[in-house]
Structure formats: structure tokens, C-alpha cells
Amino acid sequence: MKDIYIADLAGFEEGRHFDGYFLLLMKQARSTKTNKPYLNLVLADKTGQLEGRVWDPGDARITKDVERGDVVKVRGSISRFDDRLQMKVEQMRRAAAGEFDKADMLPATAYDVEELWRELQGFVESFTEPNLKQLLTTLLGDPAIGQAYREAPAARQLHHAWLGGLLEHVVSLLRLAERVAPNYPILHRDLLLAGVILHDIGKVRELAWDVGFEYTIEGTLLGHIQMGIEMVEKTMDALPDFPPRLRTLVVHMILSHHGKLEFGSPKLPMIPEALVLNFVDDLDAKMQAIAGEFDKCKREGRAADELTGKVWALDQRQLLNTRAWLEGGK
Amino acid sequence: MKDIYIADLAGFEEGRHFDGYFLLLMKQARSTKTNKPYLNLVLADKTGQLEGRVWDPGDARITKDVERGDVVKVRGSISRFDDRLQMKVEQMRRAAAGEFDKADMLPATAYDVEELWRELQGFVESFTEPNLKQLLTTLLGDPAIGQAYREAPAARQLHHAWLGGLLEHVVSLLRLAERVAPNYPILHRDLLLAGVILHDIGKVRELAWDVGFEYTIEGTLLGHIQMGIEMVEKTMDALPDFPPRLRTLVVHMILSHHGKLEFGSPKLPMIPEALVLNFVDDLDAKMQAIAGEFDKCKREGRAADELTGKVWALDQRQLLNTRAWLEGGK
Amino acid sequence: MKDIYIADLAGFEEGRHFDGYFLLLMKQARSTKTNKPYLNLVLADKTGQLEGRVWDPGDARITKDVERGDVVKVRGSISRFDDRLQMKVEQMRRAAAGEFDKADMLPATAYDVEELWRELQGFVESFTEPNLKQLLTTLLGDPAIGQAYREAPAARQLHHAWLGGLLEHVVSLLRLAERVAPNYPILHRDLLLAGVILHDIGKVRELAWDVGFEYTIEGTLLGHIQMGIEMVEKTMDALPDFPPRLRTLVVHMILSHHGKLEFGSPKLPMIPEALVLNFVDDLDAKMQAIAGEFDKCKREGRAADELTGKVWALDQRQLLNTRAWLEGGK
Amino acid sequence: MKDIYIADLAGFEEGRHFDGYFLLLMKQARSTKTNKPYLNLVLADKTGQLEGRVWDPGDARITKDVERGDVVKVRGSISRFDDRLQMKVEQMRRAAAGEFDKADMLPATAYDVEELWRELQGFVESFTEPNLKQLLTTLLGDPAIGQAYREAPAARQLHHAWLGGLLEHVVSLLRLAERVAPNYPILHRDLLLAGVILHDIGKVRELAWDVGFEYTIEGTLLGHIQMGIEMVEKTMDALPDFPPRLRTLVVHMILSHHGKLEFGSPKLPMIPEALVLNFVDDLDAKMQAIAGEFDKCKREGRAADELTGKVWALDQRQLLNTRAWLEGGK
Amino acid sequence: MKDIYIADLAGFEEGRHFDGYFLLLMKQARSTKTNKPYLNLVLADKTGQLEGRVWDPGDARITKDVERGDVVKVRGSISRFDDRLQMKVEQMRRAAAGEFDKADMLPATAYDVEELWRELQGFVESFTEPNLKQLLTTLLGDPAIGQAYREAPAARQLHHAWLGGLLEHVVSLLRLAERVAPNYPILHRDLLLAGVILHDIGKVRELAWDVGFEYTIEGTLLGHIQMGIEMVEKTMDALPDFPPRLRTLVVHMILSHHGKLEFGSPKLPMIPEALVLNFVDDLDAKMQAIAGEFDKCKREGRAADELTGKVWALDQRQLLNTRAWLEGGK
Amino acid sequence: MKDIYIADLAGFEEGRHFDGYFLLLMKQARSTKTNKPYLNLVLADKTGQLEGRVWDPGDARITKDVERGDVVKVRGSISRFDDRLQMKVEQMRRAAAGEFDKADMLPATAYDVEELWRELQGFVESFTEPNLKQLLTTLLGDPAIGQAYREAPAARQLHHAWLGGLLEHVVSLLRLAERVAPNYPILHRDLLLAGVILHDIGKVRELAWDVGFEYTIEGTLLGHIQMGIEMVEKTMDALPDFPPRLRTLVVHMILSHHGKLEFGSPKLPMIPEALVLNFVDDLDAKMQAIAGEFDKCKREGRAADELTGKVWALDQRQLLNTRAWLEGGK
Predict the structure, then answer these.
(1) Residues 6+ apart with CB under 8 A from B177
(2) Ordered alpha helix ranges (H), chain E
(3) How many angstroms separate the CA atoms of F305 and D240, rounded?
(4) Where do runs of H (alpha helix) occur along chain F?
(5) pLDDT tens-digit map of D123-157
(6) CA-to-CA dists, residue A269 to A259, B224, B256, C290, angstroms
(7) For residue E291, how many other CB atoms are within 10 A of its CB?
(8) How many C-beta atoms surround the C-beta of residue B275 within 10 A?
(9) CB C202 within 8 A of CB C229
């Protein structure tokens, strides 16, 4: 089983040897400035990814018989080149089926997926609007969709870019929406929560996560909003007597959840539930990005009272860890 | 039958009496500054609309029994108030069914709808791609959709805002696309023409044209792009073996035809046919707006070598009638 | 005491007489097209404002001795001019001090101000960070500031434009922030709540609410962000040993709460508490605007399943009342 | 004569030797990290350009006597450095005049320039407006201008960046405009075609194409719109009796052809011909960019059903080759 | 001679009679709500313009024989309608040539035009660069251009919209540029001043000022930048040996003086003199707008310590008169 | 004392040895691609900064005992790597206090600071408004502030990024403002000059210049506008009887001096002095950037008649040196 992870390697001194199982995301033949051929690799597991180099591709201990998507067993050591960590690979072979657990090979949520799934189902159970309840029960009860919903990342990069990320993001939003809803009596709580559960469901088709996280061509041409609406419309059409006005509102929630035309929502939120959905989605994504950034600083050993670097997901602004900075000032 | 039209009234001298049939678009009780009550009306027919006033609402010759949407017979005369034309209504009653032709009551295309329809069908006949041909034959062959497609305006105001406007706009685009396609060998001609025919089909649900032209609430919440995609997807799903990749491209054509996120297309055109569709749609709309503006100047008796007013549909720019101005310079 | 309110007048039939006390917001001598002089007035009370006309300014029953800002007793009747309601004033005199309650003369919160104030103080009581607690206790304990905080509107127009509006808005935000905070462990709850209480405190100087709601000249030149920071900085400077880093964060919260440079915050939120403050402030303002719009529709007797007009505070979008529309569809 | 082209080298295995003639676009002395001096070169011919390295600049077989702009004979081999192709140069001397054809040294249109020129002249022949016909005959009949018009690239990079590119672009536009014009009776066909021929004529002065393609300083300060207008105005002024209004319209066509102020046209198109010119120019440029991108993918051996990379000339969007993708789905 | 001016009429009590000479800018037949015909006029002189009404167009004392552009003698009185001043016209006839001075009829600079002209020529005299000196001497020495330069307004509305406004604006800029130039040794003082004198010269063709101030059609299609460049290029071409690089720089100064593409300059300023020209032009226009706004407040009798209304030429901001406000605070 | 400067090193041939004193801005342990450890340094003095490499970090002649911020004595030679200059460090030790002058270690103004300071004080002396004079005398008379004002750079990079840069920038602005003020009689000269002196005073806290130039965390969170206002407000509050309206105007000058919300000024300039301050500040910064760019071209030996590279501080535009280019054309 896997006991060395990408994230551990940053702490290794240069030259220390290790064996490990990794997913091969890229393999490319190159040559140095002085014409020496070598292999350039990208190796990944659930804790991250790292470049690797095979300096002697002809070595018999390096199998030729591997491809992008294979899990490989690697023996190598760590080197640093201009401050970037690299893996120097000395032996490499394809791993056999029983040697590894696929779940270790792609970044995955730190939470228990089944628990998150039960929490989500608990929310559905609590619905009093029967049509929305039936819609969600039917849709999430579809085995293929339910399975994909539990596996899908919420994004290719940025926030929640890991297996189970979609589910983790949705459950976090459900908790937040459940807290916000009672503050505004005009809100239709079940419609809001249904919108939370359905808003990103098209991501199970927009993204592929077999080998790394990629957009499908269909996803690039249509986007998860359109794809999600299609899935939800089909389910509503299959239900006898789903109320047509409720159908329109559910589609509107998905359609408008990015909040602005230039963010890919062709309609602005025009009902209170759609407005709140857009806010909590945006807030939660940003708070996760901030928390992730602070974690990264801690991992990288920065002083508590420094600003972070410029954060892409927050318009290139720098952030400050409130508590750590206040501590540092004492 | 109708022999007096709104458009004729501009030429009448003040005070001349007339009888006519008009569609009642609005009726509202008001009172003057000196507290005299009166009725404010908006009356329409296929040539335009006009405000009307009933200065003595208690007069027995004015029926109380009419509502927005009724066709009424009116006796009145023309007056001008601060340069705006108005109808002074002296008698008004609801018209009986046989007294008028409904087609006279809303603005309608100047072309023969059946001829346009045959031209459109001729284009479909000419397709060599069998799946697209079947899709269009099925969809337009649906009696309700076919009927709505022939009636719908292309917009509430702006360009082609008249009965049959959608069909007229689409046929003009088909002619243009058929001319442009051979210039670029990479274009899939049938896919381009299918995109032209389908791009605005959602307008048959986004708009209502019973009494004036209005957006439906569903249309305001979802938009014609989303509504059109739903119609087309349902038809494709009902066809056995419609190729999935072709399905994706057809949906992408509709989805991206506004050309920019801020114009309500959540995806940019990413195939050549979608790019060309966006261009010809935009060009044709602008050329119709220009031609309409020049006609309006002529009707209003402006000198040939003046600029038009600022045109809303063309970013508030003024336009100059090339030929007329060159003529004027001789 | 006052028993006729502006809001009641809309329901009166034309010509019905009434007596009432109103605040005179504007008085202007004009003449009609035919050179007849008249007075144009704007009269207000806590339920709204209305134009009034004195058609015979020379009438002895119309005192000359009133000015903007006076409360007047008026006898008059209702008329409508081109659909706009007007008051026809037949008698007018200055009201004596004991005749009216000033609280009736400007729009005011529907909530009990003292109860809101106690709720706010309860939040301050609950703080565990001693410096923030002392800061708020000191600042709100200043009699002039405490009084102004309870009276000030939150805006000149738009959201919460009524006496007590600032307090009402802040308490609503406190409740929301208290709900959101536990969802994100990185949040410093007391700093967030302190930011909520202080973010708009400059409005007690930016706005004047003696006679209607107006910006002061100082408020126009400096803005409530700058004015609020000055107030808070002075208080912190007067406290012995207020920690300098905490001081910086408090100022940053106020400075950045509009969330974007183009909205008047010269710095983006750079700590999690500032980000959340910006979100809840924006969300609450929009939800209040929506609720207000739905109330207005109800008051104006619109059908439950219509869209509202275009709402200025929500980028000119139209809104739909979810529950009412769903009801209407049954 | 030249038999090895830059485009061929990508297919060579590393280390294979070749001799070839290339245009020297850049020559620079550098040294490696370990202080070894070397020469960095950019070598070009009509199929592209490539970096070269001289690792032993003191070698007697490397002439010192060459400069930017010279054609050189090179003996070398191919190497790859971090995935980028490079030429390792072992011998280099200046080529003698008779050894090469200058036309091989810069990218040039794939079409027969004389045929394109005759096609353009055929369009001019077809004009019925005598003044425009004379203007074009005179201007293009000027030997210096005619020669430059046939040679000039249409841009420094982006679309049609090759010798003859201006002419190729204009002829493609003429064909398109000739197809579009009959669809809109308000169009003055000869004015539209004259605009097509003249719109980019200033590029013969804005760009220099002796050694690579560069902007002249005058071109950078004034731009091709201004420079073209000057050329055309001078020609019109030299013609007796060129109608002043027609003169204004011709200048307006050139001035406005970029369609927006932010694209460098100080006036928006205000006549129908100018509007159509802007559309066809934009459409043709984009269609050429797409076709070029698909060719590049084919050359690079990408799978038919992949998206292209992000295309700079199309707002960084990715594109999909319709036919290839549909084929791939069968 | 003229002794009653438009600006005086605001101070007249209603009903007072007067006789005066005015320029007729508009004449239009209308009728009232109750069908009474009347004439609507716009009358102007150098101090402003005013609407007029002829309530009895059939009256023999009202000549039918006048048209837009005529100077008329009017007998009438002042009335106010909804706060807008109007002239009630009782008699009107065309004025004879000797009765009035045309200079009284359009707003004109308050300065002595000949003195301004001498000051401008003094600047030209001071040039040490002989080519620029000759260019300006030749161009301004052209009688038609020199005359137009002295008469032209600098704009249709906004800043310097009066006869002589162009000259007044240019002389103010020359003084400012002469002050700024010595602060920056890299500046070519004569080139900067030449740019100041030439930057708006195209306005003599873009605008017409016979009857009110209007854009010509040519001006609307081409703009004063393009028109000015054409005038200056022709003059430079007629001078033997005008240095070509200097020619390019002069054209660049005119071309870039609006400073941004979206303001109609297709090139940004790329030499220091062009940058300074853009700054002083913008600063002077804004300072004149501010001074004009303060004058207007004074004329309208506003309190010294009020903000102005929102000023269109300054992005709708309000302004405060520093000195007056400080005075008011004492 | 220091006799070798960073700026001199560019002229050294490779391999020549030198000894020098430099400020250590960065020190980082790295290793090469082949795992050889080395030290990467950044060394600076008042003429610039340069990367350095220690290829043998274990060498006894390289002290381990230095940190960021130390001044070190270095023996080394020059090398070039891919066109970038580097210092090869062979010996390095911490410099003793008496060995160097700290003023040599950071870039500093080329002017005499004490002379600039006297010139600034001369401007203050010339004030006739007593309150402003006292404000400035008090504030600049504070020893800590006066010292910091003389030392502070005006920016971290861009314009005036050197010790004394703030003072140099302010004095240049004072001269310019003193020239511009008399051209506009509405200007309050002392208020304008006070604004010039105070507008950037917050930079003494926003920036730190002990070791290189950096933003402080407080500076990043609050910005120099806010920090400057706080300093000035405290000083005004400490003066008895500083007029409140003048106080508001002074704060407004600082608050609005960036001229646009998106540049970080939450209010637009609303008094003439604030408008002029924004203009002269912007103009002076741009002219310094241009002059600096031309100097750089000269230092880099570019031909006089070339365009510069794209200049970041001027919206990426290229610039042309007017005089040099005109010379080159002769």
C-alpha cells in the first residue's frame, strides 16, 4: 500500500531515496541543451503533483511500457532546480492492480464521502414541498448520477478541485443556506436548497476525472449550466404532474447562479432564492480559497504575520491571516 | 372592412372626422389638472399605434364594456398636442366578430408568409445531411410550432417587431448565409443553415403576440436561447439515432449565437458555423434597422441630405443615406 | 394629533376634503401657461411625500409665513393630473408646537428603536475580545453619537431611507453575521460583528435628516467611509493601550466594506472578516430592496403573478415574487 | 537553389545534418551559465523562423562578416531543448547573389500574385461609377503604389502576415462583398468595393518588409488609417472634378473601417457601405485565422477531434474543427 | 441698436412689455390640447436663447415672411410656465439690415478678438524653429482660414461654445503651455506651441456658425481631427522642403490630442509634446467649465456655500466654490 | 569607502575581478539541476541591484554569518547568463560599521536633499493663509516626520523609486503648481500648494526603506491616502481653532488626488484646487517616466531615432525622443 505521498517529498533532504506509487499524468521525450535525451514526467497522487526526470531513459530498469493514466511504481530521489522540487527517477514500472488503491491517486476530499452524502440526503428528507423532494430523490437516486455526484470535483483548478469536491462544496453551501434562509421570510427554503443541490450538477458531465481533471469537449462547447439544465429538465419531464411554474423556477435557479452575464449566466437572478444562491455560492468559494491559501502558507512555513502572495481566485489581492497577525503583534 | 389605418391619420387635417376599427391596447381613467375626468386610450392596427382621448367618458355613445385586447369601432377626429398626434374619440363600441380581419390589427410583415414559408422549406429540402434534414422537417412539421413560427415577431420592439417578423428575418438570413457559405470551404453548409433556422426558435415561447407584443414571464426568466434549446433537444431525443456529436453542435449553435457573454450567450462561438451565424445575424439586424430608419425619414419628409436622428439599435449613432446625399450634391 | 397620512390619500376619491399636518419640504412660486400665478409645494410625513398646489396664493387663508422645514396644517382635497396624485390646498397655516408629533413627519422604521438598540447592545455584551468591546461601549456610549445612531437613515433614497434605518440595517446584519460566522472557523467573530456595527457609522455625519434626507456638504466631499474612520480612530486613540494591529484591522474593515474600488472603497477586503462584511452588507441591502419592492406591488394592487418594474437598486432587473407566482399557477 | 525549408526541419530526427539558405533576422553574442560564449541567431525563410546556436563562435568555418538582413548558407543539425526545436550551426557564410531566390526568404502568399492582381483589376473594370473607377485606376496605376500593394503583408503577425497578404486579403473581401451586396438594395456596390480596395492601403507605408515584417516609426506614430487617407486624398485632389461629397464618403469608409473607437477608428461607420465593410473585414480576418489554426493542428498531427489551443486573434477562445469532429464520432 | 438682451429678460416681472431684436433659430406651427393653433419659436442673441410663443398666429402684426436664420424685431412680454421663462410675442417683423449689429446675435467671446489674435501672432513670432514658424505664418495668413479661426466657436455646447471661442481657448492654452514648458527641459517648446495652435483647427470646418452652432455633415462623418490634419498637410506640402520627420510629428500632435482611443484619437500621445498638449487641453477645458459653472450659480443667485448641480462636462460631479465656501464659514 | 558601483559592472569584461561593498537584499540556498548546492544572492547599492551566485557555499572565505539587510564586502567577477549579468562571488564577509556610508547602499535622489528641503520650506514661508502655514510648519517641524519626509521614496518601483524621491517629486510639483496657479484666478494658491505638500505624506508610513523598498503590512491594508489623512487630521486637531471648513477641504485634497475611484480615490476632485492637484501630479509622474526612459535608452546605447520599448507607466505605449529623432532626420 501507499506510504509515501507527494506532499511528504517537500520535506525530504536532497538525495534521499524512496519508493512510491504514483499516477502518471504526462510522459514526454526531450533532450538537454547538449543533446542528451531524457524523459520528462508528471507524477501525481491525492496530495498533489510533481515533475520527474529520467536522466537515462535507456536504463533497463525504466520500463517503456507505460502511458498517461497508468499507475507506476517509482524509485527515485529528490532534487531541487532553481527552487523547484523535482523527482529524479531511477527505476519505474507499471504497478499491478492489487498494489495500490485508486483512491490514493487523485486528490480527494478530506471528508467522509458517505457521511456528506447522508447529510445531503437528510436535507432532501426535510423538504416539505413534495415536487422538489421527488425531483431530487429521483435524480440523485439514479445510480449513475448519484455515483458521479459523489466523485466529481467542483472545478478543474481553483476551489474544490479534488474528488468529492462537488459534494463537499454543495454540503457546505447547504449548511450556509440553511442558516441564512430563516433571516429572510420571503425565501422559499426548499426551492433555495434545491437550487443549491442542482446548481452545479452539470459538472458531472462538463468535467472528466479519470486521469487528472479535464474539461470534456462537450463541456467546453456547452458548459455545466446548460448540461445541468438538460439533466434536470429530463427528470422533471419524466415525473407526472411536475408543476410547470415550479419547473421554470428550478431552471431559472440553475441558469442564473453565476450572477452576471459576463460570468456565463445569460439571465440575472430574478427571484430571491436565485439571488441568495448566487451570494452563498460566491461567498463559500471565496472563503474556501482563503482557508486554502492560509493552509498553504502554514505548510510553506511562512511567518504568521506576512501577507499571502497574490491570490488568483480573489482578483489577485493579497490576504492577511487575522488571528495569526494579531497573535504576532502581542 | 377596415379602410382607415393609423398610418393614414398623420395626413389628416385637424378636425376631420373618420370611422375606423382598432385594437384597444390600453384604457385608463384619468383627470385633468382642473379635475375633469377623461379616458386615456392606446389604439393600434397593423400600421402603428396612437394615443386617444375620450373627453366625455359619461357620454352614452362611449361603451363602458370594452377591455384591453378588444377590437373597437371608433368615431373621432385628429388633434395635435405639443406636436404629438392624438385621436379625439367621440363614439366607441366593441366590434362584432365579422366586422374586421384580425390580421389588420397588429403590424405584420409586408411579405407573403406562405411564400416565405415555402422558401424556408425549400432550403430544408436542399439539405444533404440526413439527420439535420429530419430534425428540421420534424420540428417545423409540428403543427403548433409551424403555426407559431409563421406568426411570431422577431422582437418586441427594435428589428422585425411585427407578425411574421421571425420568419422574414430567418429567410433573409438564409439567403445571406447561402451566399456567404461558398466563400469558405471549411463551412458545413447544412449545419450553418440549420443554425439559422433554429437560432431564434425559442422566441415563439419567449414572446406573446395576442394583444400587442410582450415578453411572457417564462420568457423573461429563461430567455429564447434556453427555451429554443429545450424545444430542439426534445425533438432530437425523439428521433432514433440522432448522432450525439451533431446534437452537441446544434445546441452550441443556438447557445452561442449572440456572440458575447454580455449579450446573453454563455459560450462564445467555437466552430466556424457558429461564428458565421453570429455575424450574419448581427449584420442583417443592423441593415434592417438602417433601411427602416431611411424609410422613416422618407415618410417624415426629411430632406434627402440630412443625417437621421440617433439610432438606438446602432449605438446611438446617426446615419446618412448614401445615394440620397450623393444625389443632393449634384 | 395626526390622523390623515400621505399614504391614505391615494385611496381617497377626487374632491373629498381633509385636514392634516405635514412637513413642508418645498415651496415655490410659479405661474400657469396662461400666466396665472400659483404655489407649488412638496408635503411629507412619515408615510411618503406628495406634490401640492395652491391655486389662489393671494387667498387670506393661505399664510405667507411658512418656510421649508415647517410643519403646516393643511385643508385640501385630492386631484389627479395625468395619473399623478396631487393635493389641492385651500387653507394652510403653520402648526403650533403641541399640535403634532415630530416623529410622524419623516418616514421612520417600523420597528421599536429602543428594542433594536437593546439588541445591538446585547451583541456588544457578548464580545469576548475586551478591546473591541470597550471601543464599542465607549463610542456608542457617547450621548451625541448614540442618539444620532438611533435616528439616522441608512441612505438618502434606496434601501432603509427612513429614520432609524441605519440601526435597523445594522441589527439585521448582526443577526445574519451571527448566523454565518460559525460556518467558517477562520472568522474572528467579534471583529466581524464590530465591523458590522461600525461600517456605516459615518452616515450620522454624511447625512442630515432635519428636513427630509440630504447629504451634508462635508458628507459629499468626504463620504461616510472617511468620516466614520475619523470617528472611530479618535475613540481608539482615546483608549489607553488599544492594540495597534487591531486598530489597523478595524480601520481596514470600514475602509474596504464597499468591496470594490469603483464603489468607493480604496482597498479591497484583505482579511476574511472584511470579505464577509462586504457580502452580508450587499446581500442584506438587496434582500431589503426586494422585500420593499414586493410590498410596493401589493400596495399598488398588482396581480400576484406579475413581474415588478425595473428595480434601480438591482441593476434595473425585474423581480418575481416566488410564492405569489407559484400560488397563481395552481 | 533552396531545397531545405524551416518547416521541413521539425520532421528531422535529432543530429541529422543539412545545408540550407536562410535569412538572418537576429545575431547576438551571449555566454552560458558557465561563461562559455556562444552566438544566438534567428534564421528564417518563407515557411517560418527558428532559433539557432553557434556553440563555437571562434571556429574558422563561422564567418564574422554577416549582419541582420543577410542571406546565409548554413550547415548544421537539429536539436531540441526543453521541447523547443533549435538549429545547431556548424558552418555559416554569406550567400552569394545568385545562390538563392529572395522570394524564398520571407513567407509569401500561396496564391499567384499576378492572378490576384488581375482579379482585383477586373473588379475595378466592372465599376459603373466613373469617379471611383478613375480614382482606383489612377492610384493602383501608380507604379510604386501598385508594386507595394502586391508585395505588402496585411499585418506584422496575426492574419495574412506574409508577402502578398494585403492583396490576398483584399481579393477575398472583394469576393465576399460582391456576394453580400445584392442582398441589400440600399448598398452602393461600387462604393463598397472601392472601400474594400482602399481600406488598408496605408499598410504599404505603415509596414516595412525588407527584413522580416516591422512597423515603421511613421507607421507607429500615425497608423495605416491616417496614412491611407493621405494617399487617397492626394490622388482625389489630383483628379479634376472629383465630387466633394463622394470624396467625403470615401475618406469616411477608410476612417471608420475598424468599427469602434477603441479599435482605432475615430468615427463609427455611418453609411451602410461602411458598416458592411467593417463586417466583412472582421469576418474574413477571423475565418482566415480559424482556417490557419486548423491547418496548424493538422501539421502538428493533433487528433481530429481535439480542440485547438487558445487562439489569440479570437479572444483566446478554443476552436473545434466541425467536420473532423463529426467524422471522429462515427 | 440692440438694448434688450435675452439675459436681461430673466429679471423682468411678468407682463412687462419690451421691444427687441433677436435671431430666429426655430419656428414651428403647433396647436394646443384644445386644438388652438399657435407658433412655437426659439429666439436668440449673444447672451443666450429663449422659447417664444405666438398665441394668435393670424394676427396681422405677425409677419408670415420670416424664416430660421432671420433677425426679427419682436414686441412682447415675459411669462413663466412651470418655472420655465417664455416670451409671449405680440408683434414680429423681419429687421432691416441697418437696424442691428450681427455680432449681437450670437454668443461671442468677452475678449477683444483682435487682441487675442495679436497675442497668438506674438507667440508665432517668438518661434526659433523656422519650418514651424513658416507653416503657421502661411496657414494663419490664408485670409479665409484666418477669418474662420477668429470666428469659430470651440464647441457646439460645453466649453467655449461662442464666437471667438476657438481663439480664446487656444490663447489660454498658449499661455499655460508657455508656463509649463520651462519645467521640463526635454520639451521642444515650438513644437508644443505649434500643436496648441493647430490641434483644433479642423473645427473651422467641423462646425457651422451662421445660424446657431451646428455640426456640418462632413464634420459628423470625418471629425475635426481628420479635417485639421488635411488642412495642415496641404499647407506643409505646399512649402518647399518642409522636413518629413517634423511633418510626421506635427500630424501626430493633432492626431493624438484627445489622449485616448475612446475619445476619438486613434493613436496615444507618443512624444512628450503630445502628452503635454493632451494634458493642458483637458485641464483648460475643465477649468473653464468650472469657472462657467460658478458664474452661473452667481447669476442664479445661489448661496455661496452650496454645491453646484451635477456638471455634465465633469462626469456629472458636483463642484464647490472654495473661496465662497470658506468665506461662508467665517 | 565605496568605489565600485553596480552600475559600473555592466561595463566590465567577463572575468575581471573586483572588490566592493553592497547591501544584501536576498540570500537563498539552491541547487543546480545536477544537484550541486549553491547560494543565490541579490546585492544592491544606490545605482541598482544585481543577482549574485556563490558556487561553492562551503568555501571558508564565504561567511555564513550574514542576513538580509547586512552590508557585505564581496570579492568576485562578472559573468553573463543568457544575456543577464551576474556576479560570481568568491569571497564575502560582513562589512564593519566604519567601512561604508549607508547613503551609498540604496538608490537616492541626484539632488541635494537639504536644498530641496529649503526650497519646500520657502514655499511654506510664502503662504498668506495663516492656518495652512501653521499646519505645514507644525507637521514638517515634527522631527520624525520631517526626517522621514526627506528620506522616503515616492514609490516602490515606477516613478521616483529612490531615497528622497518623495521630496524631489513634491518640489517638482510645487514649481509646476506655482506656474499654473496664476493662469486661473479662481484658484486658492495656498490651498493648492498645501495639497501638493500633503498629498503623498502617508507614503512615509505606507513604505519601508530600511532594506530595499517595501510596502508595510499596514500600508497594504490602508494605503497612503488613508494614512496621510490620519497624520494631517491629528495635526489639525492639535492646533487651536483650525477652521473646520478648511479642515474638510484639506482632507478632500488628499482623499481625491488620484482622480478616479478605480485609482483608489473614493471621491472625485470637487474643488478647483483638487482638480489641478490631480492633473499636475499625473503630468509630473508621466514626464519623469518619459525622461527616465530616454535616459535608459541613452545608457543602453540605442540609436537616437528608435522608439523605446513599451513603457509600463504609460499604458504600455512606446515613446519617441523628439529632438533625437529630428536630429537623426537631418
Answers:
(1) B192, B193, B196, B276, B277, B280
(2) 6-9, 113-125, 130-141, 143-151, 165-180, 189-198, 203-206, 217-238, 244-255, 272-299, 322-328
(3) 40
(4) 6-9, 113-125, 130-141, 143-151, 165-180, 189-198, 203-206, 217-238, 244-255, 272-299, 322-328
(5) 999 999 999 999 999 999 999 999 999 999 888 76
(6) 6, 16, 20, 12
(7) 16
(8) 25
(9) yes
Return the number of other C-beta atoms located less than 10 Å from residue C244's C-beta. 11
End-to-end alpha carbon distance in chain A? 46
CA distances B251 to A219, A232, A237, Å, are: 12, 16, 19
Question: Residue C230 — pLDDT band, cuts 50, 70, 90?
Answer: very high
The alpha carbon of residue C11 is apart from the nearest alpha carbon of chain B, in Å, by: 15
Task: Look up cell 499507475; give the residue.
Answer: A71
Q: Please give the helix or strand (H or E) that residue E102 lies within, else none.
A: none
- Alpha-helical runs (H) found in chain B: 6-9, 113-125, 130-141, 143-151, 165-180, 189-198, 203-206, 217-238, 244-255, 272-299, 322-328
Which of F176, F183, F290 is facing E186, going by the closest CB pair? F290
Cα gap A304→F220, rounded to integer Å: 16
CA distance E81 to chain C (A): 5
Work out the burial of residue E55: count CB atoms within 10 Å of its CB; fewer than 13 is exposed, 13-18 middle, 19 or more buried.
middle
Cα D312 from Cα D297, distance rounded (Å)? 15
E223 Ramachandran zone, left/alpha/beta (phi>0; psi -120 to 50): left
Q: Max Cα separation, chain C?
A: 72
Q: Considering Cα of B10, then B16, then B22, then B28, what sign does the dihedral take?
A: positive
The single residue listed with the C-alpha cell 477608428 is D265
Those residues whose C-beta lies under 8 Å from the C-beta of residue C290, and which sit 6 or more positions away, are A186, A272, A275, C311, C314, C319
A168 closest CA partner among A291, A284, A259: A284
CA F298 from chain centre, in angstroms, equals 21
Digit-coded pLDDT (tens) for C131-170: 999 999 999 999 999 999 999 988 876 567 788 999 999 9
Q: CB of E134 within 8 A of CB of E140?
A: no
CB D227 within 8 A of CB E225: no
CA separation for the pair C13, B139 (Å, rounded): 55
With touching defined as 3 or more inter-chain CB pairs under 8 Å, the answer for chains F and B is no
Cα three-residue angle B110-B115-B121, rounded to 5 degrees: 130
- CB contact at 8 A, E63 and E40: no
Confidence of residue C236 (pLDDT cuts 50, 70, 90): very high
- Whether residue F42 has pLDDT greater than 90: no
User: At B131, phi and psi to the nearest 5?
Assistant: -70, -45
**Spatial separation of the C-alpha atoms in residues E50 and E43, rounded to whole Å:** 5
Q: Shortest CA distance to A108 belongs to which of A170, A141, A151, A56?
A: A151
CB C209 within 8 A of CB C105: no
Contact D22, D42 (CB under 8 A): no
Cβ–Cβ contact C82 with B under 8 A: yes
E-state strands within chain A = 17-31, 37-45, 48-54, 71-81, 84-94, 207-208, 214-215
Q: Which bin fits E69, alpha (ψ -120 to 50), beta or left (φ > 0)?
A: left
DSSP track, A2-65 = ----HHHHTTSPTT-EEEEEEEEEEEEEEE-TTS-EEEEEEEEETTEEEEEEES-TT-TTB-S-
Q: Do B82 and E30 touch (CB under 8 A)?
A: yes
Residue C89, beta-bridge partner list: C76
Q: Which residues face E113 on adjacent strands? A: none
| Beta strand C84-94 pairing with C48-54 | parallel
Distance between A301 CA and the closest CA of chain C, angstroms: 18
A residues 272-301 closer than 8 Å to C (CB): 272-273, 275-276, 279, 282-283, 286-287, 290-291, 294
How does strand F84-94 pair with strand E84-94? Answer: unpaired
Closest partner residue to F179 among E183, E279, E317, by Cβ?
E183
**Segment (H or E) for D42:** strand D37-45
